[in-house]
């Protein structure tokens, strides 16, 4: 399996992991698709990047956090309670992507 295919598989898995609770909360389809695509692309970026001065486990966390930050800024005025949840979720999923990259 090539690196690109593996990154897409990991991205689809973590994207689905993020979207399942969103579907259970009956959030709009557009929000679910946005979250899925964010983590799908984050996995591809993490698999092809090596950020300097960061250990292997922090690469995914940094990339996922950087990709989630604009999303948080768009709804911080309306839904302030959701911002810490989204940022914590980005850190956790970024860590999972880094673990998958390191061990697969």
Description:
This protein is mostly helical. It is 80% helix and 0% strand. It is built from four helices and no strands. The protein has helices at 3-24, 29-47, 56-75, 82-103.
What are the key terms here?
104 residues, mainly alpha, 4 helices, 80% helix
Short description:
This protein has 104 residues and is mainly α.
Write the layout of secondary structure elements.
Elements: H1 3-24, H2 29-47, H3 56-75, H4 82-103
Distance between the termini: 10 Å
What overall form do the CA principal axes indicate?
globular
Q: How much strand?
A: under 5%
Largest sheet: none
Radius of gyration: 14 Å
Number of strands: 0
Number of helices: 4
Q: List SSEs in N-to-C order.
A: HHHH
Derived from helix and strand composition plus strand pairing, the structural class reads: mainly alpha
Average pLDDT metric: 93
Please give the share of residues in helix.
over 70%
**Unreliably modeled segments:** none
């Amino acid at each position: 399996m090539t690196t690109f295919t593996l990154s897409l598989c990991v991205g689809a898995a973590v994207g689905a992991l993020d979207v399942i609770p969103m579907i259970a909360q009956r959030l709009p389809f557009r929000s679910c698709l946005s979250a899925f695509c964010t983590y799908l692309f984050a996995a591809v970026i993490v698999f092809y990047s090596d950020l300097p001065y960061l250990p292997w486990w922090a690469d995914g966390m940094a990339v996922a956090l950087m990709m989630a930050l604009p999303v948080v800024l768009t709804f911080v005025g309306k839904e302030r309670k959701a911002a810490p949840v989204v940022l914590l979720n980005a850190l956790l999923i970024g860590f999972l992507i880094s673990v998958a990259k390191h061990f697969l």
